[in-house]
Amino acid sequence: MATFETDVAILGAGPIGLFAVFELGLLDLKAHLVDILDRPGGQCTELYPEKPIYDIPGLPIVTGQELTDKLLEQVKPFGAQFHFGEMASGLKKLDDGRWQLSTDAGTEIIAPVIVIAAGAGSFVPKRPPIAGIEAYENKSVFYAVRKMDALRGKNILIAGGGDSALDWTLNLAPIAKSLTLVHHRDGFRAAQHSVNQMHALVDQGKINFRIANVKALHGKDGMLEAATLAASDKTELRLDCDTFLPFFGLTIKLGPIAEFGLNLHENLIPVDTAKFQSSTPGIFAIGDINAYPGKLKLILSGFHEAALMAQEAFHVCRPNEKLRFQYTTSSSSLQKKLGVA
Amino acid sequence: MKILAVDRKGQEHVIEGRDGWSVMEILRDAGLPIAAECGGACACATCHVYVDEAWLEKLTPKSDAETDMLDMALAVEPNSRLSCQITCAPELDGLKVTIAPE
């Protein structure tokens, strides 16, 4: 467990969280960012890294990945610390007026200002719509493989048609007692050579592949014993298995932010449009997660919100100092911070 | 044109479609619970609907990108489509879709 003290803790390392580092940095405010994903960019890199974005001012065309890379370059001088693969899970106010943000990995960040730039929430694995699946999760149903060896000798059922489903089918086939891959079609959104290898294993009788959906799970006390597979012609098959690995990618759930006491309205955080502060002083919300009259969920709106938030964050962090508003084009002190003077 | 949308509780909603809009946009605009996380970029599979069999053949066929993206959707059936990839048009008056489970 590690504890850090800083000026601002930012939830979310998407484009708006990243640009907040820049605006805060110009005012000499240091930031730590927490993101459940293992890399920066948020939706830009998770959902559409290769898709062009056409409405970023001054960048006629830029992909989600390129925009993220450019923002990282822009904020580099400010030395923000990133905590990737961690979900912000708790927030409490300390006696000295600062906030303590904790993550599910045991990290604690203490700061006078919290900035929520979490988009629509946390990216979490898609959970198949199978009744009662929750009871099996982390006992015999897993959305990620942490220790391959724990699956040695198991009767494994894998569902999905992307690279994760194929890769784990190939990786686990040699150590599983039995392995069945189930997908809704004989076609995959995965590397062709993986698909070919999978078919070869099927031909060799080492694994099974079935075109179906997993419809029901059977077992007790969270321990899986069998699954019902349903084909599109409604025929059903009961398959004995003790481990189920669904791989359908990620979806966005609001997550623990809902418990932070921020007067959420339809899963959004109401803010004022001067400071982008929530109903709780010291907690700000910028980007897609906030709500105010006239809100547009655009990256460019989030950039504006980050700039105004930073002004007020300065007053919270440095109550006895005067904020000097300066332009990067003319201020030698800002240029020094940017490392260009 | 009208769209007949069935929500996850089985309740039917008759919604006015708009030529040129995607069915996802119409569902979202009507306040129905469609996540559409990527905003219509065929990049997330969270606007998944089942199209009534009678209408399936009348739609523009799936692109390769949509077929691929459906591999990331849950509970996919032969009549599964991503609603961001269906464009409203007069000949689709009466189109019936059911929002897929999440």
Can you describe what's shown?
The complex is a heterodimer of chains A (341) and B (102). Chain A has 7 helices and 22 strands. By secondary structure, chain A is α/β, with parallel strands linked by helices. A 5-stranded parallel sheet of chain A has the order 6-3-2-10-21, covered by helices on one side. A 4-stranded mixed sheet of chain A has the order 1-9-8-7, with no helix packed on it. In chain A, a hairpin with a 5-residue loop joins strand 16 (223-230) and strand 17 (236-240). Chain B has 102 residues and is of the alpha+beta class. Chain B has 3 helices and 5 strands. Chain B has helices at 23-29, 53-56, 64-69; strands at residues 2-6, 12-16, 48-51, 80-82, 95-99. Chain B has a 5-stranded mixed sheet with strand order 2-1-5-3-4. The interface between A and B is medium-sized, with 26 and 24 residues.
Descriptive key words:
heterodimer; A: 341 residues; alpha/beta; FAD/NAD(P)-binding domain; 2 domains; 22% helix; elongated; B: 102 residues; alpha+beta; Ubiquitin-like (UB roll); 3 helices
Describe the secondary structure blueprint for this structure.
The complex is a heterodimer of chains A (341) and B (102).
Chain A: E1 3-5, E2 8-11, H1 15-26, E3 31-35, H2 43-46, E4 52-53, E5 62-63, H3 64-75, E6 81-84, E7 88-93, E8 99-103, E9 108-111, E10 113-116, E11 122-125, E12 155-159, H4 163-172, E13 178-183, H5 192-203, E14 208-211, E15 213-220, E16 223-230, E17 236-240, E18 243-246, E19 250-253, E20 269-270, E21 283-285, E22 290-291, H6 299-317, H7 332-337
Parallel strand pairs in A: 1-9, 2-3, 2-10, 3-6, 10-21, 12-13, 12-18, 13-14, 20-22
Antiparallel strand pairs in A: 4-5, 7-8, 8-9, 11-19, 15-16, 16-17
Helix pairs in contact in A: 1-3, 1-6, 4-5
Chain B: E1 2-6, E2 12-16, H1 23-29, E3 48-51, H2 53-56, H3 64-69, E4 80-82, E5 95-99
Parallel strand pairs in B: 1-5
Antiparallel strand pairs in B: 1-2, 3-4, 3-5
